[in-house]
Write a structure and sequence with these properties.
The chain is an all-alpha fold and 321 residues long. It has nine helices and two strands.
Length: 321
């Protein structure tokens, strides 16, 4: 349950300035909803989102490809993963080159069939008050002005060291609680409430409630990376459309960006498919080597297969891959 991860200090240091600057950004939006600079600024923000996402993807890929034996910092939790022990320290090696559980260690977490997770310290909002305050101010302002605080959220998760469960639990509470003062401000202070549109508000609320289980259902049947690419395509085309708002070439630029984005997306999908096929062929090759009593040690600088002794071969056949 995420309830045990709710931090009142986080809600105070982040949630309070977030709510204040969310209202301030909303006020600026209402006073300048017809301003010519608003749409181009929103387009620039969408490109900032794309750049931030590209940086986060590059950072995660760099950490995933870090040499074995070197600790790698987690992109989400900020923790340091423990490097694996070499095979000569009392542990057998499976065909993928990872250390498996030793029967002589009954307290090993691998006995339960689950990998050991790196230990994380509780996130101290007061000790990291500068990051939290920056998140509250910048995130709230972008939320109120453009309803897109993603760049600030991504940067905070990457560099603050907050763990995933604490982040998820507190962001949900902060968003729910922030709706109350914003709704009061829009409906009663700014007099933006139109009773004739109440059926539309109700339909929107019902649609959101119905979309949650539908989204969970679809998420299990859609490739995550392909869905991310589709969202990136929408952000790229939308950014071009907004930046060129009011210009004579707006439609031409939007169409050209759509074609370019589709070409890039299709090439990415093709490369990913080829990589999966190559990986499948590599797994088949390693399986044949194992069946012949050979195993390749990865990460030790050896590309050739070493013959196993009969005892080691029997032990390998009993190991779970």
């Amino acid at each position: 349950s995420l309830r045990k991860h709710i931090s009142f200090s986080f809600l105070l240091v982040v949630g309070l300035p977030w709510t204040i600057f969310d209202l301030l950004g909303t006020k600026v939006l209402i006073g300048n909803n017809q301003a010519g600079w608003l749409k181009p600024c929103f387009g620039i923000l969408l490109f900032v989102v794309l750049v931030t996402d590209a940086f986060a993807t590059w950072r995660n890929a760099r950490q995933a490809s870090a040499p074995r034996g070197e600790p790698a910092e987690s992109a989400v939790t900020g923790t340091v993963a423990t490097p694996e022990l070499p095979s000569d320290q009392g542990e057998s090696v499976n065909t993928l080159g990872h250390a498996s559980c030793n029967d002589s260690a009954p307290a090993s977490p691998c006995k339960s069939g689950k990998a050991a997770e790196p230990e994380t310290l509780p996130f101290d909002s007061f000790q990291n008050w500068r990051c939290c305050l920056a998140l509250g101010v910048a995130g709230g302002l972008l939320k109120g002005l453009f309803t897109v605080p993603m760049p600030v959220l991504v940067l905070f998760v990457l560099f603050s060291g907050i763990d995933r469960d604490t982040w998820r639990a507190n962001v949900i509470v902060m968003c729910i609680v922030g709706v109350i003062p914003k709704g009061y401000y829009l409906f009663f202070v700014e007099q933006e409430m139109e009773w004739a549109k109440v059926p539309q508000f109700v339909a929107t609320a019902v649609g959101v409630v119905a979309a949650i289980p539908l989204g969970n259902f679809v998420a299990t049947r859609v490739d995550k990376e392909q869905f991310k690419d589709i969202v990136r395509l929408f952000a790229f085309v939308g950014g071009c459309f907004m930046i060129a708002a009011g210009e004579s070439f707006q439609l031409e630029l939007s169409f050209a960006s759509l074609v370019l984005g589709l070409i890039i997306m299709c090439r990415r999908w093709r490369r990913a498919k080829d990589a999966d096929q190559a990986q499948g062929e590599g797994v088949s090759l390693r399986s044949r080597r194992v069946s012949e009593g050979k195993v390749t040690y990865f990460g030790a600088g050896q590309d050739e297969a070493d013959d196993l002794s009969p005892a080691a071969g029997a032990e390998l056949s009993d190991a779970k891959v």
